[in-house]
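Shipment paperwork, digital attachment
Item: protein structure file
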Amino acid sequence: MKYSRIKGTVDIMGEDLGYWYTIENATRKVAKLYGYSEIRTPIIEPTELFVRGVGNETDIVQKEMYSFQDKGGRNVSLRPEGTAPVVRAFIENSLVNKGFPQRLFYMGPMFRYERPQKGRQRQFHQVGFELFGSESPLADAEVISLLVRMLREMGLMNFKVVINSIGCEKCRPSYKKALKEYYADHLDEVCDDCKRRYNTNILRLLDCKVDIEIAKAAPKSTDYLCDECKDHYNRLKRYLKVLSIEFEEDHRLVRGLDYYNRTVFEVRHEGLGGQDAIAGGGRYDGLIEELGGPHVPAIGFAAGVERLILAMKSEGVEVPPPIVHHVYIAHIGDVVEKALEIAEDLRRKGLTVDLDVMERSLRAQLKHANRIGALLTVIVGENELERDVVVVRDMETGEQSEVDVDFATDLVFDKIREKIQV
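Attachment content:
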């Protein structure tokens, strides 16, 4: 029986791995620069964690989670996003006792049952950063600055940062009231999802992809901010200008999760069309308390790896191949032991070495060396070893020469170093 992958999943392999490695390396490099430690949470978590954390009325909880009951009768879900699991780990492992701020980052797969499309799969991947302990807009500026630096490290340039403030528990009720009054006059015009959200999550009407024109004329959250939220937002904008980070303000930006407050932000890429968001996040000062911990302010973001790859391809970002075959070892006759010795000597020097394990003819071995892109081929033959030499062939030029077997590995290493930086 032939099996196929499940709809909404992909096999990650081949040349695309160069993009994945570039994203992962850029993430780790920037995390180190800003002092963030990695955290790896389980893929499976209690369903209630996301119901309470993400919000029962969100599309994720209502429509998209992979939830089931395990053999022990527990309600569990494959994680649909990364922040709630990191917060759970923060509380469970008593990181609050280690002082503030706490800076964590993660990479890994997430799962949402939604219609697969370009850049959006049912198993998708995110990189994310979370900063715990500070309510200062300095923390907001750091996180946005980190995100911009990370994207540039990946080779991206054609993106824009979009920000907004949705206020806090003190000033948001008055804004929600204004939204309700505004949308009350448009309920006959909005889509069915917006009709439902009108009573359950009024802010989500602003980021509806159907009723865009109605949302454009809606009241702005920044007009209803309390003095503290207004000061926080103004300071953030000043800090971003000091950091030379260009940004746009969009009063329709609210993000899709219930835990956000005050600062929300998004990065949009011009090469992705309508689904142009490649990263987004915001402040979630009440989430840790909501999930059973103490009151700890926090801010973070997540970026979709598949979306990042589409953006990189649209800009023509060049990435290194997933593997460079420095040297191919071909062997003819009863010389396998010497071929193994040479291969291991070269690997100890840090070179990538492909040793023939198929017992092919020399012609077939050289053809394979060409196919994998080997830079040099070392040919070990019985006749040559009788004279204590091996043949080193430059696969680009076709030039070859005999080399004393005792000096072969040093010479090959030097030749490779001349071709590329090892």
